[in-house]
Specification:
By secondary structure, the protein is of the alpha+beta class. The protein is built from ten helices and 20 strands. α1 crosses α2.
Length: 458
């Protein structure tokens, strides 16, 4: 059966069984990918995934059931399983099926053609060739990867909602391995675009190789407190790691120190954090969330003040506010949670002209302002070294010394420690180099003083 046929079958069985409040959620997609090693195809894969989740509310209790089989019999079984689950769940928490009435944005239709398998392989081979040509020291172990994916999200419910979002994107990354005096150094660069043709392969390769080459001869640093310039990707990594603290669900569970802080100062004046489901450069643009609420751009932090936490219908009801349209599902079969869409610290270049003064700084200008310190390019060990509840972190890092206002020698094998909440308050200046990781979390470079570093004498 097609999704449309299955949806009609599920709706029919829900009505037949007297279910007045229900929702059908769908996720589906496919991805073709190729990996290149030693200028040959190491692997080519095609993956498809699809699933639906039926949720019903009976006498105030929610029941879930999910499947990957779109058949008439499974439509009937799905409804009956959810109905049975609703009868067995004991919970005092109220559940909701969203009503009609929202104004939904319309995303532009995709116009990039789907590449053939041969085109995907050719693009990946071209990237691998560029990696080897970027530097004579590039050696075996260097790899290139190229993919093209397409996704669809859909939701319909008993209140008349019938929504669909579709998008596609190309992805690539290059891993460069460089050898010098028997030592190996690696560098990495990845990008997402609407089409294979949009990738600047030479630039991607040179960036990956330069990252590897720049670490040759890296030493450590003495322990102490330093002025730190966190690179855009390093700060975006921190934002991604601590993004759950902006979730009302986590706050209401006592797992975020931002609980009850709306309207209070939580960051420096230069910090504005945006959640935008249709950010202009994002490959993933959404018009509705995991409950069918219209998704929209909002300032979560505005000039240092916490404007709102991120809500779904349940957390919003508890807080006595409207949902921010941030209901999410980790997969089609998951229960409803909360998460951001495209979540980023706004860079000065995106602000109105009157707000750019004394803020718009390229990374080199941040080095000059720092004087002496450390430029942290990459943070590692976030799963073990970062506590989202307390905000504390102690993370392995690598980067460069900042000496007399300029980027100096490479350094590694040191640890950066601090607290995310205090870090937000202590940001002195932002760069204008907004960059995203995971296609979802973004930040410009930032300058912060008096950060604890454990180095070679720790």
């Amino acid at each position: 059966m097609t999704y449309q046929e299955f949806k009609e079958a599920v709706t029919g069985y829900a009505v037949k069984n007297g279910i007045a409040d229900y929702e059908l959620y769908y996720e589906g997609g496919w991805s073709d990918s190729v990996e290149i090693y030693k200028e040959e195809v190491k692997g080519y894969s095609t993956e498809e995934s699809m699933g639906v989740c039926f949720r019903c509310i009976v006498e105030g209790r929610a029941g879930y059931a999910s499947t990957e089989n779109l058949t008439e019999e499974e439509a009937r079984s799905l409804v009956l399983r959810a109905l049975e689950n609703a009868g067995s769940i004991e919970s005092e928490e109220e559940s909701f099926i969203h009503k009609k009435g929202d104004d939904y944005a319309v995303c532009p239709k995709e116009d990039s053609p789907q590449p053939s398998g041969a085109e995907l392989v050719e693009a990946a081979l071209s990237l691998q060739k560029e990696l080897y040509q970027a530097d004579s020291r590039v050696t075996d172990g260097t790899q290139a990867y190229m993919s093209y994916s397409s996704y669809k999200y859909a939701l319909c419910n008993s209140n008349g909602l019938d929504l669909e979002d579709e998008f596609s994107m190309a992805g690539c990354y290059g891993i460069a391995l460089v050898e010098k005096d028997g030592e190996m150094y690696d560098g990495f660069e990845n990008k997402r675009e609407k089409s294979l043709q949009a990738f600047k392969l030479k630039e991607i390769a040179e960036t990956a190789v330069e990252e590897a080459v720049s670490t040759i001869g890296a030493g450590s640093v003495p322990s102490g407190k330093y002025t730190i310039v966190f690179s855009n990707k390093a700060m975006a990594t921190l934002l991604a790691t601590y993004s759950s603290v902006f979730s009302a669900e986590m706050a209401q569970k006592g797992m975020s120190l931002l609980n009850g802080k709306e309207g209070e100062k939580i960051a420096a004046d230069c910090i504005t954090i945006i959640d935008d489901p249709r950010y202009r450069d994002s490959m993933v643009k959404r018009t509705f969330d995991g409950e069918g609420v219209a998704a929209y751009a909002k300032s979560v932090v505005e000039k240092g003040v916490l404007s709102t936490l991120l809500h779904n219908l349940k957390t919003a009801a508890k807080a006595g506010v409207k949902s921010t349209g941030n209901a999410s599902k980790a997969s089609y079969s998951s229960v409803v949670g909360v998460s951001p869409f495209t979540f980023y610290i706004q860079s000065p270049e995106e602000r109105p002209e009157g707000e750019k003064e004394n803020h718009s700084k390229v990374p080199e200008a941040l080095f000059r302002k720092a004087g002496d310190g450390i430029y942290v390019k990459e943070l590692m060990g976030l799963h073990a070294g970062a506590n989202a509840v307390t905000g504390d972190f102690s993370l392995s890092a690598k980067g460069f010394l900042i000496t007399e206002g300029s980027k100096g020698a490479p350094v590694r094998n040191f640890t950066v420690s601090g607290n995310f909440f205090e870090l937000l308050k202590d940001v002195e200046v932002l760069g204008n180099d907004l960059e995203f990781i995971q296609g979802k979390f973004g930040s410009p470079s930032i300058l912060v003083r008096d950060i604890a570093v454990a180095g070679q004498d720790a």
